[in-house]
Design brief:
The structure is a homodimer. Chain A is α/β, with parallel strands linked by helices. Chain A has a single domain (26-341), classed as TIM Barrel (Alpha-Beta Barrel), CATH 3.20.20.70. Chain A has helices at residues 27-38, 55-63, 68-73, 81-101, 112-116, 119-135, 150-160, 187-199, 216-219, 229-241, 265-271, 309-312, 314-318, 322-341; strands at residues 42-46, 107-111, 139-146, 163-164, 171-172, 178-181, 203-209, 253-257, 277-280, 303-307. In chain A, the strands form 2 sheets. The first copy, chain A, has an 8-stranded parallel β-barrel with strand order 1-2-3-6-7-8-9-10, surrounded by 7 helices. The first copy, chain A, has a two-stranded antiparallel ribbon with strand order 4-5. In chain A, a hairpin with a 6-residue loop joins strand 4 (163-164) and strand 5 (171-172). In chain A, helix 4 (81-101) packs parallel to helix 6, helix 4 packs across helix 14 and helix 7 (150-160) runs parallel beside helix 8. The longest helix of chain A has 21 residues, at 81-101. Chain A is globular and about 60 Å long. Chains A and B meet through helix 3, helix 4, helix 5, helix 6 and strand 3 of A and helix 3, helix 4, helix 5, helix 6 and strand 3 of B.
């Protein structure tokens, strides 16, 4: 099967607000549908560095000074104009990148750290970027790598996936489609996140083997009972996901597996036959799409290829305007992945 | 040595803004000074649930409608009045709790999840609460449990400890004195956080053995080479902290060790002789101050006893007004801890 061209794809849905209540369909089925409809397994990673944004994003900050969004962020007398302007530029940058490559992608992955460092205006920018992605019919993955004891894990679930009850009424969370989570605190720390994700038709991606060299320090430690820490986490992922299997053969508890260590993908696929693999590390970190075939065993949506700098920074390597270079690189990755896993 | 009474303590410093640049003194020395000056190792944990706030915090929301802080949060035409009101109530609740127990404590520990679930207004409340704590001369620990690959770890370091360079100028982070971090991604994921913390005179608390039952799932796995995952993390903590040792004998890389598993404290102290132990889990989770003596081997600041619901929810168990009950419980814990580790 080859990549569906833009012209053959179904029309985009009308711009959608974050869901006002639980979604009915399971994450696995929603993702499988989305991957098939868009003919792409490419996830646009957005980790905006406010010192290295696309030039157009900065130019637009001046032009947007009188927009309604600006007024909401910049009330008279507020003391943080630099943070507000930087957050606006970050939101512009992400919106431009989304506009440039949305046709080639199935989702965006938002690196929450990059927004959080701009404080409250940064969090507002995060919500705005998630909304931009939805308007382009992209799924939204919050790359937050959260993990905490049960009551605090529930609070993170509310922040990202559902809503928070308050004495004034419920406060909607970010409403993302999936969240990356850290399993170090064990099964009872993930349970509230799994429960909320499942109720809302969202998914989780549990860190199993990350893409950085230091991942080996703890994740690859050999256990007295055999296997590694990563293997044990993989078992936990399979257990947590068992009751969240959709009709497309994918569960709502996926795994983050660095594309930089493809040798173990096959074994991981055997341990987690129904988990969606979120695969960062292609490009700047050295991973290659060609090595990721094992991820796609359960179908085209079995693997999601997350690329950040490789797409958004394509012009720094090959020249050209940022948007055009990003589009070309995203198209190249989409076709490459679809040949292997489509 | 007995607890210093409020009357004997040095006067509070003038209200302090977050530091505008790197601090000179090491975290270990700053903490040792602060513990000695205040005669307390008690950390007020604030994990506000906006459905269960002190009643006075909610009453104050109406009264504060015309305050400058309110105007900054609630510009005309903004679309999130519930989130804004809930965030105000959360900030009020935390300010009241800080005011009630500051004299008995050395620091506050802010559970970031509880603020993040209220979006941008929640993040503004987090910054406001940190500022309230500073005004009461309390150190501020952000309990965020962050962990990510190097470039994203640097972004979290900027968000919590330092500042973010942008094309518009630097954006100040939250400016906390210490941050809890998750080591699952290994040494290279912690290195940027250690570097920034050290440059700014701040500290880290690395999750070594958490207070929840599920902590055993991964942290206590036995390794083929001997010891457990927690033991290996403890070694990493000792290595990372070795070059950050202050003159008081404490480093700037501490450890989170649940007070619910005191049996291993002695062994952990041997592995990390100079690390500050942040000890959650006393009270609601079942830990007892009496069992924590091993933490204080390097001196009174070797252990910090973090109590959240045990203090803020004291009135739910023993009756009385929330502030008075919290003050009494904090005073009791302070004296108990000081007898053991002062």
């Amino acid at each position: 099967m080859t990549a569906t061209s833009g012209a053959e794809k179904p029309p985009l849905r009308a711009p959608a607000a974050p869901p006002a209540g639980p979604r009915v369909r399971s994450f696995g089925d929603r993702l499988a549908h989305q991957v098939a409809a868009r003919g792409s397994q490419v996830v646009l990673g957005l980790d905006p560095d406010p010192a290295r944004l696309w030039p157009r994003a900065i130019e637009l900050v001046a032009g947007a000074a009188e927009s309604p969004a600006s007024a909401a962020w910049d009330p008279p007398g507020t003391a943080a104009p630099i943070a507000v302007r930087a957050a606006r530029a970050v939101a512009n940058h992400c919106a431009l990148a989304i506009e440039a490559v949305a046709e080639q992608c199935v989702a965006v992955k938002l690196q929450v750290a990059c927004f959080e460092r701009l404080g409250a205006p940064g969090w507002a920018a995060l919500a705005e970027v998630a909304q931009r992605a939805r308007e382009h019919d992209l799924l939204v993955i919050a790359d937050a790598k959260r993990g905490d004891i049960d009551v605090s894990a529930s609070a993170y679930a509310e922040a990202f996936l559902s809503e928070t009850p308050t004495v004034f009424g419920p406060v909607a969370g970010l409403g993302v489609d999936a969240l990356t989570v850290n399993p170090l605190l064990g099964g009872d720390s993930l349970a509230p996140l799994v429960r909320t994700a499942r109720n809302w038709g969202s998914g989780l991606f549990v860190l199993v083997r990350t893409s950085n060299p230091g991942a080996a320090d703890l994740q690859e430690l050999a256990l007295a009972g055999g296997g590694s820490v990563s293997d044990r986490i993989a078992r936990l992922v399979a257990e947590l996901g068992a009751s969240g299997l959709g009709s497309a053969g994918l569960t709502d508890v996926g795994a983050v597996l660095g594309a930089t260590a493809p040798a173990r993908l096959q074994a991981m696929r055997e341990r987690m036959p129904h988990a969606v693999f979120l695969l960062p590390g292609v490009g700047a970190q050295g991973g290659r799409v060609e090595d990721l075939a094992a991820a796609f065993a359960p179908g085209p949506a079995g693997g999601l290829i997350a690329v950040s700098r490789g797409i958004v920074g394509a012009h720094e390597r090959g020249g050209g305007d940022p948007a055009g270079a990003a589009r070309d690189e995203a198209a190249r990755l989409r076709e490459l992945a679809w040949r292997i896993g489509g």
